[in-house]
């Protein structure tokens, strides 16, 4: 079994802020412990620093429907088909907020969903090779019978289409490769594995 590394096993020799706006781009001169016990040379690593986020897949266990959203994403401009992506509800949070509370709030803002119960799916680093972003992913119990329409905060120029569809249809979309965002892929795969258990829990 390999050594268990801790916060004592690296050193930031120098930290430079290259850009600061909505995100922050930093260059770290850093050295770290090697698996053989020695120390690495000082290496340069750029990291995109951004606030952590919470995401939630609303699910109606009685109708067996999920709620997805669609919105324009500038990071997907190179997507051959369209930069409008199918996603789960998500939003960033500050250090004084709880991830589950943020997920519940964002479900209301982005999809007009009232979350009645909430279940943690997983929390994980989104892309640790170049970003510090950390995501808490949930599934939330909703009544999907009246879900639909355009939502989002006008002050943030959000234009978000929310819609409900049978869980099986969402799984087929996933299998056809129509869903390109990691939180939605992970949440739907989790629901495929846990749907029977979740229905029993939320009935």
Question: How is this structure best described in words?
Answer:
By secondary structure, the chain is an alpha+beta fold. Helix content is 21%, strand content 39%. Strands 4, 5, 6, 7, 8, 9, 10 and 11 form an 8-stranded mixed beta sheet that branches. It has a 3-stranded antiparallel beta sheet with strand order 1-2-3, with no helix packed on it. It is globular. The N and C termini lie far apart (43 Å).
What is the secondary structure topology, with strand pairs?
Blueprint: E1 10-20, E2 24-32, E3 43-49, E4 53-60, E5 65-72, E6 84-87, E7 89-92, H1 99-111, E8 117-125, E9 134-141, E10 148-151, E11 160-166, H2 167-175, H3 182-202
Parallel strand pairs: 4-9
Antiparallel strand pairs: 1-2, 2-3, 4-5, 4-7, 5-6, 5-11, 8-9, 10-11
CATH superfamily descriptor of the largest domain: Nucleoside Triphosphate Pyrophosphohydrolase
CATH architecture descriptor of the largest domain = Alpha-Beta Complex
Q: What percent strand?
A: 35-45%
Radius of gyration, in angstroms, nearest whole number: 20 Å
Approximately how much helix is present in the residues? 10-25%
Tertiary shape: globular
What's the CATH topology name of the largest domain? Nucleoside Triphosphate Pyrophosphohydrolase
Q: How many structural domains does the protein architecture include? A: 2
Structural class by SSE content: alpha+beta
Mean pLDDT: 94
Low-pLDDT segments: none
